[in-house]
């Protein structure tokens, strides 16, 4: 009890040792990338449990400027208001020098991250962050923790600080899209004018020829009425009127000559049209390609913003961080990712694994997760995440893990144990592998692998789970062998419905530790797994 009182008093003292809060705002104008941007920053800096805490937000307004796109310079005033409204400042990191009584005459810097930036005029989305003392205040290099604390104690307001842009990025995809569209329309208009200029004289010449032909055929129409030209010619031939027939035939021959003159003119127009259409399609293809690049750039920007929001949302303050303890146990989840697991079985296994990971880490047990699959000849059949106490990274890894083909159980068993002993925390005394499988291994003999691991003293305790494994199958015998030969036990999951409950039971790390202590490393003394014996083991997880 006295120790507890002492510890509580220590925490209170270290918390209030320099608990002064610095809060205010400052304005800053940047000229990066040709933009003149006014930035307003609100900040709050304090300490919590002896650690620094910083929260800063910013909003901005793009005043004016020039932008270079595809080698051409544009004044921002050239763009419509609706286009400019889509321009975003999506990343902003500042370097701020501040006054401190600790280092008179010396410029001291801190980096300021504004979180996820919003649209112009809106405050950024940010949450308090707790940088390490040794990675926060600097001049040429970061100050040590002791120097940083002293500098912070002499901290003055930032209103009179000098601000430098450390990292700033704009989303100008809307400007690029507008410029590309305008360029296409301009090229199309130019092509249209060229096409009109090249074909206008030809069309006028064709019209003249048509007018001449029309006058000739009109005279014939006036003379012969509704009678067809063929009928007229036949009648004149029968009537033996040579003069009239000759005059009639001359008009027809003139019409044919005019048609012959029109044909090459039409061919020229067709060639010009074909060439024009090819050039126009080329410009449209270039525009489509430019839009694809712009869309890809916008997608990457939005992905960055989404990741920044997740990062901001998942920050933890010192009081939410567990007091670091010495790691005494290491747990590795080894999960079958063969093709037979694909679908609901795999999803339920992932869900159960995530729950197991969170509970283990909450008890200061370091956890690694490995999925196994592929062929026996693969040099590495594991898709593995290293030991960590960061549940967020492990959960993301589990959620995104794919299935991987075959069931190289013996190869996975060997690689997993070797990985565990080479990667676990040096202070860890208890090592457990929780193995889930739904079928028999199709590689080397399990017994040979187990014997080799024992000889090399790299064989951890295994708790094995058979998912929908037949009670007389080779898979059951293999999983049972792995468990009992290591001092662990085999657990049967009749269906995916009870898989989560088995993981729930096995997530009691204290029970696992008790079992490890109970069975130790007596590899050559397999335990009986009769129903009564199994129940006595499971009783440890109540």
Features:
four-stranded antiparallel β-sheet, 14 helices, Rossmann fold, flat, single chain, 542 residues, disordered N terminus, alpha/beta, disordered C terminus
Description of the structure:
- It is built from 14 helices and 14 strands.
- Strand 13 (461-467), helix 11 and strand 14 (490-493) form a beta-alpha-beta unit.
- The protein is 47% helix and 21% strand.
- The radius of gyration is 41 Å and the shape is flat.
- The protein is of the alpha/beta class and 542 residues long.
* Gross morphology: flat
Uncertain segments of ≥5 residues (pLDDT<50)?
1-18, 509-542
The portion of residues forming beta strands comes to 15-25%
Helix-and-strand structural type: alpha/beta
C-alpha-based Rg, rounded:
41 Å
Percent helix, as a range, is 40-55%
Indicate the CATH class of the largest domain.
Answer: Alpha Beta
CATH topology of the largest domain, what is it called? Rossmann fold
Distance between the termini: 30 Å
Question: Would you identify the CATH architecture of the largest domain?
Answer: 3-Layer(aba) Sandwich
CATH superfamily of the largest domain: von Willebrand factor, type A domain
Order of secondary-structure elements: HEEEEHEEEHEHHHEHEEHHEHEHEHHH
Number of structural domains? 3
Tally of helical segments: 14
Spatial strand sequence of the major β-sheet: 11-10-9-12-13-14
Mean pLDDT across residues: 81
Give the beta-strand count: 14
Largest sheet: 6 strands, mixed
């Amino acid at each position: 009890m006295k120790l507890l009182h002492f510890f509580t008093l220590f925490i209170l003292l270290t918390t209030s040792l320099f608990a002064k809060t610095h809060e205010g705002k400052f304005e800053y104008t940047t000229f990066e990338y040709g933009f003149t941007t006014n930035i307003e920053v609100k900040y709050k800096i304090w300490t919590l449990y002896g650690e620094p805490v910083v929260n800063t937000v910013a909003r901005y307004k793009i005043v004016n400027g020039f932008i270079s796109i595809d080698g051409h310079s544009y004044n921002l005033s050239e763009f419509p208001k609706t286009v400019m409204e889509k321009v975003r400042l999506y990343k902003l990191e500042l370097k701020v020098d501040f006054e401190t009584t600790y280092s008179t005459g010396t410029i001291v810097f801190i980096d300021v991250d504004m979180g996820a930036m919003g649209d112009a005029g809106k405050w950024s989305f940010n949450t308090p962050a707790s940088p390490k003392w040794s990675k926060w205040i600097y001049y040429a290099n970061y100050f040590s923790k002791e120097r940083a604390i002293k500098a912070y104690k002499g901290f003055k307001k930032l209103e009179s600080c000098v601000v430098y842009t450390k990292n700033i990025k704009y989303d100008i995809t809307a400007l690029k899209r507008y410029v590309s569209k305008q360029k296409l329309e301009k090229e199309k208009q130019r092509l249209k004018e060229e096409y009109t200029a090249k074909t206008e004289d030809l069309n006028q010449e064709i019209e003249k020829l048509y007018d001449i032909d029309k006058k000739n055929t009109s005279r014939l129409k006036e003379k012969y009425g509704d009678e067809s030209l063929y009928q007229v010619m036949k009648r004149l031939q029968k009537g033996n009127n040579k003069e009239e027939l000759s005059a009639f035939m001359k008009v027809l021959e003139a019409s044919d000559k005019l048609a012959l003159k029109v044909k090459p003119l039409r061919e020229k127009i067709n060639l010009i049209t074909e060439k024009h259409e090819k050039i126009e399609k080329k410009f449209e293809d270039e525009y489509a390609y430019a839009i694809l690049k712009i869309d890809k750039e916008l997608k990457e920007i939005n992905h960055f913003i989404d990741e920044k929001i997740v990062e901001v949302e998942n920050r933890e303050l010192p009081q939410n961080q567990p007091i670091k303890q010495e790691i005494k146990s290491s747990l590795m989840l080894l999960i079958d990712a063969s093709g037979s697991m694909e679908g609901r079985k795999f999803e339920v296994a992932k869900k159960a694994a995530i729950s197991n990971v969170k509970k283990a880490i909450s008890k200061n047990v370091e956890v690694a997760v490995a999925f196994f699959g592929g062929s026996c000849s693969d040099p590495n059949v594991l898709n593995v995440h290293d030991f960590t106490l960061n549940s967020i990274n492990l959960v993301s890894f589990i959620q995104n893990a794919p299935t991987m083909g075959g069931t190289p159980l013996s190869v996975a068993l060997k690689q997993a144990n070797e990985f565990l002993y080479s990667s676990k925390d040096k202070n860890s005394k208890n090592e457990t592998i929780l193995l889930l499988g739904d079928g028999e291994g199709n590689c080397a003999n399990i017994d040979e692998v187990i014997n080799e691991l024992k000889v090399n003293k790299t064989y951890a305790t295994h708790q094995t789970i058979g998912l929908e494994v037949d009670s007389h199958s080779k898979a059951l015998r293999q999983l049972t062998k792995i468990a009992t030969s290591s001092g662990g036990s085999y657990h049967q999951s009749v269906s995916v419905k009870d898989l989560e409950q088995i993981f729930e039971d096995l997530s009691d790390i204290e029970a696992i530790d008790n079992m490890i202590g109970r069975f130790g490393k007596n590899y050559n003394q397999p335990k009986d797994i009769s129903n009564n014996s199994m129940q006595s083991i499971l009783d440890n997880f109540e």
